[in-house]
């Protein structure tokens, strides 16, 4: 496949990995921000090619994982209503709320549907004027333009039976919060390529300068990730802290400006709770006042639902990179993809599930050393 | 029969075309299934007589009795059952009718049996267009004839509208296992070689791209096929074959995990050597799915002694259903009970069984 196969070449991967090994003189902790990168690293075993000095910390960039429990409970309350068709991206269905998940609501008679595009939910609203169609609008800047477009189209068409439960989160405030954390160990970032395809990377130079941290815009195929790591390590070894773009075939400085204009119209920045982390100021989007009528939280009166997370789940520390999933007491015991305690065990992009499925678990360490 | 062809699609404009099928007698002019078709009375009898028996391969008198009496050569009998619930009912490369035959025939074939006879049970939803039913039953009959198995007994029930997905089918089948043949998931040992008979993920992605309305430059066709003749050719060439599986739901990953556990061996697969059609790979990329977990309906995994691997490969490639057969890995004496993939960049990953359904990733 064009633009994919070329970036999976095993021989070139080995060559870049050899270069990284050669230039690495001491330990470095690098955070890959995006869940898609975590997935690729573990799916392809990229970490196994790196020298032991390089530690990859899996960042909070999985939208499924950072969506707060409270928001899941709101989704469950709305989805259980008989007058509602509740639409969501697939992997949100298994995220546990306080006492059940969307699969369970579906089995109990709720009309819960997996859609690939929020515009499919708008089409459902057109088709079922007697029903309330609600889309669960989660994700980073990557999914935001499509979600914004769905609300925009609904408003343009005057579709009064469409609304969105919005829990959007933003990357730059998260990077800022991680760097400000007193327990932070992250020394460099692989920034999320897809986020930057929308937003460009004009937001990042101030962060790199202020926190003296290298930020390399990185893609998702094995060679993309390795190249991102190579450039990051080169900066770290040279004592530099710049923004570099290692995903030039997709990302430019300004980003997708029509998309950004739409985002500005439909959304407004707001404080946002991140599951396991807490509230990060100005780190999310809500619907702007002009689109407030389409906010499902108000339409279904769920704004007051408040929830407390399980104390046994250490997803917050995992998401901040302060522990590895395997250091959690519950990992692989009370908490598995089958019966997840926290969202990081649910999504295939979640750091805990990625560890469990693709295994930097004990067994694989045996395999690799065998 | 002197009656003219009964065009069942007349009042069902959106119904699939059903070229070539003729009903010898009008089915009381019902364009759709009504509850009475399952009532055991005249309507039921007409459905059996005028649709099922002709479509399913001849008016076998045995099929009208309460049970079929069969004479089987040999004494070792393989017996299997499978139920079919699929949406859409008709898809590129087949229908629920072809699946109902291929699924059970393949389950029999995977134990080395020669399939002999099938039963078929239909659960029809009130309102199912007669033309759709006719197409499906015709597909089922044609698939059975092509596979050389007889459909010897059957049953039909009708459920109220809203209580079914159009049509559910159950088939059970029996087959004869030749003396001395011993194939099963527990027989694999270190050193054995893993083969796949062709490209993986075709069926699952054909269904999914229809269901999600995804359009690609080429339509992905289901691989639905009866594999027993491929198995026969394979077993002639590699009589020591340890284990056979058709990787349906859960895909290659689940089947190999089951074998690794049952035999308590490690299995290693070189991911790049597993054939995947470009369109299937593209669809998987788009939806965030892994072809290792996607269903197949016309592929098999064979684990054979290393000494017979070349012969097994050659025999499979000589068969039309095994043209793309490939050796993809081997059994090893480490990581017992686990499946490990060697990735394209030369690293390894544990490939686990999936939990429940494979969910598309968000981004």
How is the topology of this model organized?
The complex is a heterodimer of chains A (about 375) and B (about 375).
Chain A: H1 10-23, E1 28-34, H2 35-44, E2 54-61, H3 63-66, H4 69-79, E3 84-88, H5 102-107, E4 111-114, H6 118-127, E5 132-139, H7 144-156, E6 162-169, H8 171-180, E7 188-192, H9 193-199, H10 205-211, E8 215-218, H11 222-238, E9 243-245, H12 257-266, E10 267-274, E11 278-287, H13 296-299, H14 315-319, H15 351-358, H16 362-369
Parallel strand pairs in A: 1-2, 1-7, 3-4, 3-5, 5-6, 7-8, 8-9
Antiparallel strand pairs in A: 6-11, 10-11
Chain B: H1 42-55, E1 77-84, E2 90-91, E3 94-95, H2 96-109, E4 114-125, H3 130-147, E5 150-159, E6 167-176, E7 193-196, H4 202-211, H5 228-237, E8 243-245, H6 251-263, E9 266-270, H7 278-287, E10 301-304, H8 309-317, E11 326-332, E12 339-342, E13 348-351
Parallel strand pairs in B: 4-5, 9-12
Antiparallel strand pairs in B: 1-6, 2-3, 4-6, 7-10, 7-11, 8-10, 9-11, 12-13
Helix pairs in contact in B: 2-3, 5-8
Nearest-integer average pLDDT of chain B: 87
Order of helices and strands of chain B: HEEEHEHEEEHHEHEHEHEEE
What is the count of structural domains of chain B? 2
- The end-to-end distance of chain A, rounded to whole angstroms, is 34 Å
Average of pLDDT of chain A = 90
The residue fraction in helices of chain A comes out at 25-40%
What is the string of SSEs of chain A from the N terminus onward?
HEHEHHEHEHEHEHEHHEHEHEEHHHH
Helix/strand structural class of chain A: alpha/beta
Backbone shape of chain B: globular
Percentage of β-strand residues of chain A: 15-25%
The largest pleated sheet of chain B is described as: 7 strands, mixed
- Give the structural class of chain B: alpha+beta
Second-tier CATH architecture of the largest domain in chain B = Alpha-Beta Complex
Number of helices, where a helix is a run of at least 4 consecutive DSSP H or I residues of chain B: 8
What fraction, in percent, of the residue positions of chain B are helical? 25-40%
Q: Could you state the oligomeric state of the chains shown?
A: heterodimer
Q: Any idea what the CATH superfamily of the largest domain in chain B is called?
A: PurM-like C-terminal domain
Question: How much β-strand is present in the residues of chain B?
Answer: 15-25%
- Global outline of chain A: globular
Mind summarizing the main beta sheet of chain A?
6 strands, mixed
């Amino acid at each position: 496949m064009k633009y994919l196969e070329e970036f999976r070449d095993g021989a070139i991967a080995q060559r870049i990995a050899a270069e990284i090994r050669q230039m690495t003189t001491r330990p470095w902790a690098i955070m890959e921000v995006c869940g898609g990168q975590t997935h690729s690293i573990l799916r392809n075993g990229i970490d196994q090619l790196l020298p032991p000095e390089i530690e990859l910390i899996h960042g909070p960039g999985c939208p499924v994982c950072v969506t707060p429990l409270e928001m899941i409970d709101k989704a469950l309350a709305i989805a259980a209503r008989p007058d509602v068709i509740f639409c969501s991206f697939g992997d949100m269905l298994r995220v546990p709320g306080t006492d059940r998940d969307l699969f369970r609501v579906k089995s109990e008679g709720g009309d819960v549907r997996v859609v690939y595009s929020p515009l499919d939910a708008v089409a459902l609203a057109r088709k079922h004027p007697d029903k309330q169609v609600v889309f669960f609008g989660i994700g980073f800047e990557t999914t935001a333009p499509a979600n914004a477009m769905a609300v925009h189209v609904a408003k343009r068409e005057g579709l009064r039976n469409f609304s969105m439960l919005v829990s959007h989160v933003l990357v730059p405030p998260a990077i800022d919060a991680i760097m400000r954390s007193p327990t932070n160990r992250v020394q460099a970032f692989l920034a999320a390529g897809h986020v930057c395809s929308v937003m460009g990377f004009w937001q990042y130079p101030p962060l790199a300068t202020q926190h003296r941290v290298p930020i390399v815009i990185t893609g998702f195929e094995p060679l993309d990730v390795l190249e991102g790591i190579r450039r990051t390590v080169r900066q770290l070894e040279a004592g530099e802290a710049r923004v570099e773009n290692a995903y030039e075939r997709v990302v430019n400085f300004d980003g997708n400006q029509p998309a950004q204009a739409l985002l500005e119209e439909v959304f407004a920045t707001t404080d946002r709770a991140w599951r396991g982390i807490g509230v990060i100021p100005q780190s999310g989007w809500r619907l702007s006042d002009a689109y407030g009528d389409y906010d499902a939280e108000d339409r279904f009166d769920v704004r007051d639902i408040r929830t407390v997370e399980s104390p046994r789940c250490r997803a917050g520390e995992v998401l901040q990179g302060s522990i590895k999933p395997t250091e959690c007491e519950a990992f692989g015991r009370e908490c598995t993809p089958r019966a997840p305690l926290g969202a990081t065990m649910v999504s295939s992009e979640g750091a805990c599930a990625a560890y469990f499925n693709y295994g930097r678990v004990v067994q694989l360490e045996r395999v690799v050393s065998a | 029969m002197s009656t003219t062809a009964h065009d069942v699609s007349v009042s069902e404009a959106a119904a699939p075309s059903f070229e070539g099928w003729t009903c010898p007698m009008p089915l009381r002019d019902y364009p759709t299934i009504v509850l009475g078709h399952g009532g055991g009375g005249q309507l039921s009898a007409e459905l059996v007589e005028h649709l099922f028996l002709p479509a399913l391969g001849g008016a076998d008198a045995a099929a009208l009795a309460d049970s079929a009496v069969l004479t089987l050569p040999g004494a070792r009998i393989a017996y299997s059952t499978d139920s079919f619930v699929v949406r859409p009912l008709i898809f590129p490369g087949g229908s629920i009718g072809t699946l109902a035959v291929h699924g059970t025939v393949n389950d029999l074939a995977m134990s080395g049996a020669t399939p002999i006879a099938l039963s078929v049970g239909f659960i029809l939803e009130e309102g199912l267009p007669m033309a759709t039913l006719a197409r499906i039953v015709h597909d089922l009959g044609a698939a059975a004839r092509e596979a050389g198995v007889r459909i010897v007994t059957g049953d039909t029930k009708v459920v109220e509208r809203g209580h079914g997905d159009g049509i559910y089918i159950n088939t059970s089948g029996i087959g004869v296992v030749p003396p001395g043949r011993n194939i099963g998931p527990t027989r694999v040992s270190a050193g054995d070689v893993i083969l796949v008979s062709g490209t993986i993920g075709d069926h699952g992605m054909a269904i999914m791209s229809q269901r999600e309305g995804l359009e690609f430059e080429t339509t992905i066709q289901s691989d639905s096929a009866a594999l027993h003749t491929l198995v026969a050719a394979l077993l002639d060439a590699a009589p020591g074959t340890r284990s056979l599986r058709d990787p349906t739901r859960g895909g290659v990953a689940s089947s190999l995990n089951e074998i690794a556990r049952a035999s308590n061996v490690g299995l290693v697969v070189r991911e790049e050597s597993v054939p995947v059609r470009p369109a299937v790979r593209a669809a998987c990329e788009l939806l965030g799915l892994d072809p290792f977990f996607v269903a197949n309906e016309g592929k098999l995994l064979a684990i054979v002694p290393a000494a017979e691997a070349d012969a097994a490969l050659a025999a499979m490639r000589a068969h039309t259903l095994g043209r793309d057969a490939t050796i993809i890995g081997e059994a090893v004496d480490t990581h017992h009970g686990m499946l490990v993939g060697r990735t394209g960049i030369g690293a390894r990953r544990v490939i686990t069984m999936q939990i429940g359904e494979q969910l598309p990733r968000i981004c």
